[in-house]
Amino acid sequence: MQATEAITMQSALSQLINGNSLTREQANAVMNIIMNGEATDAQIAGVVTAMRMKGETKDEITGFAEAMRAHSSHLLTEQEGLLDTCGTGGSGIHKFNISTASSIIAAAAGIRVAKHGNRAMSGKTGSADVLEALGVQITITPEQAAQCLNDIGICFMFAQLYHPSLRHASVPRKELGIRTIFNMLGPLTNPAGADRQLLGLYDRARTSTVAEVLGELGLKRAMVVSSHDGLDEISISAPTQISELLDGKVRTFDITPEELGLTRWPIAEVMGGEPEVNAALIHAIFAGEQQGAYRDIVLANAGACIYVGGLADSLQSGVTIAARVIDSGEAKRKLESLIQTTGELAHVSR
């Protein structure tokens, strides 16, 4: 197929089945067809399955993400120095909400945080579920979320409210029941245009590719993390592979819990449960009542947020700052501010 020809779902599927990758422009066009509701469920399922079997390329992921961003609602704010901690999920391990807790600690440390997230897709409790259980109002408007970010330095953007066009892919995604390119897109489509990110990935073979995609999408600093024991987080049970985007270049390395100054714990020690269970864990960590594995894995990931946000010159010093933020009560107070502010904003809109 000539690059100048208009691509269709059928021609894209044929190209992919023959083992040929889509260009960035073709991928963008395919995602636009999907987002506009012009593709059938069978066509969507066929394209994303063929892409998964071939292996999604940097250009394909970037093209899909750019189209999804164009179809999204946006939160208007200053993007410089703005952090997101959205991960892919899909690890199959029912841990508690580590990135959500880490985002609150990062905000308490002084980083502006625009947290993007959704309800649980594969686990028991997504970021939206646990924040709701904590008492945060998650359905405020983009304008209210921008005000929340401006007032207290953190906001939550409930993905369902910002990506309505994804409804066109909901049936094939659910019926396929496998990980596809859609699992990677949520963390790549922050509605506020955050320029810094800690992104947890379910597939260790893809960390470098996804870090490169973040660079293509205009991010200035990022870490894509995937642990050797299967977490889409920085683990305290095994080494974690990190692909760091810095100064336009990506480098990949491993880091261990011990290198972060933390104890190594069995992965079973960081399991979570229903939203109320995970909310209670976060409350206990912030109150200084929960020590051990739960605190340490939050410190590892919050430390990375603080490093990516530019407040620490190393992951190790980021962990130290995160511990100080918890121990001083600042994390607890930031959560209380988020609950109060979103409650007041939601009340105004009623």
UniProtKB/TrEMBL annotation:
* Residues the entry annotates as binding 5-phospho-alpha-D-ribose 1-diphosphate: 87, 90-91, 97-100, 115-123, 127
Q: Kindly tell me the pathway this chain contributes to.
A: Amino-acid biosynthesis; L-tryptophan biosynthesis; L-tryptophan from chorismate: step 2/5
Q: Which GO terms describe its biological process?
A: L-tryptophan biosynthetic process
The cofactors named for this UniProt entry are: Mg(2+)
GO molecular function terms here? anthranilate phosphoribosyltransferase activity; magnesium ion binding
| Keyword flag Glycosyltransferase | yes
Q: Specify which residues bind anthranilate 2 according to the UniProt entry for this protein.
A: 173
Record text on subunit structure and interactions: Homodimer.
Q: What is the protein name stated in its UniProt record?
A: Anthranilate phosphoribosyltransferase
* Higher taxonomy: Bacteria, Bacillati, Bacillota, Bacilli, Bacillales
